[in-house]
Amino acid sequence: MSERSADLDRERVAAALERVRAGVRQRQAVLAATRGAGDEAGLALAELRERELVREPLAESPRPVVGRLLVFLRRAGFHLFVKWWARPVLGQQNAFNQAASRLLDQLARERARDAEAAARLARRVEELEARVEALETGRGGEAR
User: Residues 94, 54: contact at Cβ < 8 Å?
Assistant: First the structure.
């Protein structure tokens, strides 16, 4: 292995590690933001947001000698025979995924608002029951 190829390998590894680190930092930020809510739906929604976009496949080959030729042939085949059909389908799928994740996000927010409203109502009912109890006992314990 020459010095130049070793340097290229180190650069590729460093770039890959940086992408992994960036992904880990992003995931930790998402988890920290949703953990405050204490809600599994928030985690599932964050995961959905991460995966909502479908991308075109990348042509890769692990074969060192003929890999470049294989990648070129795959790219050319995709460009000539599949791209014209796949791009509109991917666009439709991405639009659907984004609409679905927006709807689920909206439903989750409404659910959280409804839970807060239900908790407020429950507290209010408890307060009113305590007041009724106090009024009934204040009348000398007389029944209605």
Answer: yes
